[in-house]
Design brief:
The complex is a heterodimer. Chain A contains 29 helices and 21 strands. By secondary structure, chain A is an alpha+beta fold. In chain A, the strands form seven sheets. Chain A has a five-stranded antiparallel sheet with strand order 8-9-10-11-13, with no helix packed on it. Chain A is elongated, with a radius of gyration of 36 Å. By secondary structure, chain B is mainly beta. In chain B, α1 packs antiparallel against α2. The chains are: A alpha+beta, B mainly beta.
Amino acid sequence: MRLIEYAQGIRRILAGVGLGLAVSAGASPAPVVAGFERFHRGALEDAALAEGGLLLLSELNCVACHRLPGLGSLPERARLSLSDVGARLSTESLAAFLTQPSKVKPGTVMPDISLAPDEVRALAAYLGSLGSPHEDADLIAGGVESGRSLYHSVGCVACHGADTKSVPAGTLGESAPPPPAAAVPLALGEQYSRSALVRFLVDPLTVRPSGRMPDSHLTPAEAADIAAYLQRDREVVASVQGPEAPTLLLAEGRRLFTERGCVSCHVADEGGETVAPVETVRRGPDLTGSGESLARGCLADAPSSAVPHFRLDGEQRRAVVAALRRIGADAAFLQAEPRREVERFMARMNCYACHSRDGRGGVEAARAGFFAVTDTGAHSLGEMGSLPPALDHTGRKLTRSWWAKLLWEGGGEVRPYQVARMPAFGRDVCEPVLDTWEEADRRTPAVVIDVSGRQLHQRSAYGRRLMGTQDGGLGCITCHGLRDRPAIGVSAVPLTHTVDRLRPEYFKELLLNPQSVQPGTLMPPMFMGREKADQEIEQLWTYLKEIEQQLLPEGLLRTGEYELKPEEMGRTVVFRTFLEGAGLEAVAVGSPSGRHAAFDAREVRWALTWRGRFLDALTTWEERAMTPARPLGEEVTVLPPWTAFVRVGTSLAADAPASESARYRGYALGADGVPTFRYDLGPLRVEDTLRPGEAGGYRRTLVVRGGGPGWLFRGAAPGAEPQPVSFDAAGEARLEEALP
Amino acid sequence: MNQPMTFQSVTHQDSGHPMWCGLRERAQWGFRILGLLLLAAGAAPTRAEVVTPSVAYERLPYALPTESKFEVSGIAVLPDGRAALALRKGEVWILENPLDDPAQARFRRFAGALHEPLGLAWHDGALYTAQRSEITRIEDRDGDGVADTYETAAKGWGISGNYHEYAYGPVFDRDGNLWVTLNVTIGSPAKITGHRAGPPLWRGWAMRQAPGGDLQPVAAGLRSPFGLGVNLAGDVFATDQQGNWWGTCPLIHLQPGKFYGHAESIPDTRRPESPVRDPGTLPVGLTVVEAAERIPGFALPAVWFPYVKMGQSTTGIICDVTGGAFGPFAGQLFIGDFTLAQVNRVFLEKVDGEYQGACFPFMDQLQSAVLQMAFLPDGSMIVGESNRGWNSLGSRSFGLERIRWTGKTPFEVQSMEATPDGFRLTFTEPLAADVALEPGLFTMTSYTYLYRQAYGSPETDPRPVAVEHVEMSADRRQVTLRCGELRRGYVHELVLGALRSATGQALRYNRAYYTLNRIPASVSVGVDVARQLPR
């Protein structure tokens, strides 16, 4: 029942915000700035309205044409690159767009520019000439349905509209959630050549370095699927480039591009050289924040054809005016305190589409159903598991290197169970705000934690015990995985990268009182009232610092953790240890063929063969007591106790003492990694090799030197009879036997 | 720093030493001995602490690969300057660029399939390491950069599968003899099939093999002789661990036919090949000095490391062969400590033909239990660490780091020599001109240890040593102490008061511990050891 209601709710909403943004209004629709639509539309208070106006000033890139002399500065959006636009859009598409951007892409923040048809033709021809055609070989055939699925799951719909067919399966509320704010339009992509769209989706930041369309770390194949989905109603356009335009037309287009203000918001390369603004760039008047100017130019009710037409609606205009007034009246408005600056940054970048902070933003209820988890263990985390995390306290939570991973380098995601991805927004855009962010979240008094590891109590072994489920452990691994190992129970954030990712002070703050730091967290307050909490938290830190090299905690450690797997390693593995059946000087030889053996270096003889799994190195590598290892596989064969050669006349009883003094001399590895063991038996110098045989068993090869008459070879094969050895003139003999 | 260590490190950790003692016996010992110490000395011993932080030496921890646990148990610097590193799990890696930025260290796996190698040496064109049951010569004969030949270079001692049966080394002395030391068996043998049990021969012995010869027993009475090293003269030394029969950790000059005190090696002295005379029934209730007089063949260690004050678990030994590139200690020995994760320093001199000398703290607060050290071509020291199985101070469970002399001379007691009526101290720098030398600046105590089967020993029979007269050399670098009662065989602990050098530095460490086995009949000629060294 709830599901149905929910689905109906979603459908109702999606009808209004669907992909094509089928806005009914005949008039050119106002530009869509997500943060404004969500937080400022309908604002009654001046302060909220002014904040909304400030957001519009930045997102409409007003400072590209206007200055604020003596009033401070507004963030400027990085210019959109048109260097390759000719490979993306046909001259016809460009011309249609230039004629009236808002008609082709309703809601676009690009203003309508008054251009004569000839000017449109020249500009379109010029832009169409930028960039080079891409080989069809670039084109990856995508699948519409997989693209649909990706589009609705990896995070696109956090900002963009959803398809009415793609109602999420989850249910989050008792009844239909309120409709979401307007979706960010993406219309123009439908007209891209297919390969250009794929490239754009793989790397949007090259074209749009402002980061407003972030990089979702799509693979080319994923991007091709999404491209196929976005262009599902169109023929695939392999290439958009037409015949070369006349030189004079291109020159005219280039002149218009530089002189009509395009370069204020766009940048183009010609053969690697940037087309820079020339002196004649159209600049708007300085903004003074007062006077009649607030109702003129772009802000006029009906702007003249001489200025860009942003199609601001009444509320947007009022907001911009309110912002300009505040800028003029209050110098502190543009230099706000750190918390406010972070809020503004998040609004500009639309972080709020996914993340909340200080109770603001977060995934809108109507979109929440698109955020899914991959494993059932995470279902029990509820929204904590499926939705991107709140960003409260993150300025003191994350290390700088982790911010870098999250915001521009990639590889910073730590919630493998979440389907949606944390996209990259670009270093140039994000790095400057990090100092402010840190300042905004500074805690006084600071939490104090000693992570020197110098104290006796800080040993990682203690931390390991605490992580585990036995021996007084806190059982952290119940919810947190480590390394490649998932948690035993609920899957929360794996802790493998904790020390790279978290600042130790935050780690301690969180552990001491999870609810106060992350309200709603399912993490139990393990350390409340624990007498040695300070020390124990330091122990955990030390252990996590060494996690790559440390034994996993009890409970997470599986039998076979240290199992040596020659098959997987694809090579012969020699391993020396105490081995059941082969004694204290065993040299085990594991083969990728799955046929293994052990040589007893004390008794100089082959002691065991077995098949299947080889050995577990745990006790040899980690245990103080060094418990003997044992063959893990099947068909363990104990070979006879005698050495290979005896003198004629010696007792052949199995338990007879060896007739010759044995001396082990070591081994040499062959080119295939198989060891040839060397030992002396009295005067004989023996080389003894056991390899998997072609027929499935083993083939043993012996080369003996220093012999003469009167020697018997005693094979290890079942039922093998002692045979006389015939040495050649040089006293050398070569023998072979097959073992099953 | 008068308290907390002692109690914690003796009783709280799961045990004190690498490679030998059982947890329970250790803990029991801890409580018992602590009580004794408190009764005997009125206060527990404390670690020798840094008086001034070092500007003379810097620590450079290497960034380690994650493929293997870098529990570095052996280091051999190759002729081309690379460092070969044995890991306890049974591998040998090559550190290609030990002198470069430690964050950019490049490591390469060279050999594997070794059974807990505890030592590594480069000799005669190959690497040698001690495995549980043999010394193995490791070579890359086909030149592909990976070892392909594991040749048994020495063998012949017994193992029962008890985990304490470590083999340490090898080192090579001036004649090219190979030396290995063998831990005693502590506890029961392993229960394992496919093994014909025999007596675990030569446990607690030092063994030697001449070039082309067989492995021979040399000296007995060792317990857990982790460290093996050779001084400039080519003589071989070993360290051992406080425990039963060892009152505290010693530095031993290994000499043929000697018995060093641990009883478990005695049955093998009755074997025909034993060069050590059967010491017979061991006396009880004696100090180790008295025991040395009573037991035939018994040899005292060259230096005692007073427990806790100078570490709790001595490990690797290296001689400063850098000719001054590592600072003002050329020719001296450096000794690792497991539990306290530090490196100590030893000055040795010969009195009546036998080594004895003093130990000093050198550097503490390393990353983890120090196992082995070696000198790199530039004269810096590389230190391998692992505390698995026991425990140590430090920030990590294992590691590899480098200690580099910055070129600034630390102000320390460079050497402490015995004289017929006291000691002569040589400082690394002249004392400040305004230092008013007076006996009160030097506080001395002497004590020894009990020789007994029980674990460890308190400092026994302690007495203050009166410093009656002090005299400074003209160059202000040497101070001669005339003392009251000097006791043969006793540790003479010296605590120095506030001294400053001519350059204005305070002493880096203010303690020295001289083991006075013999009192010289005459004053030795002052020798600047560093000047004798090849550069």
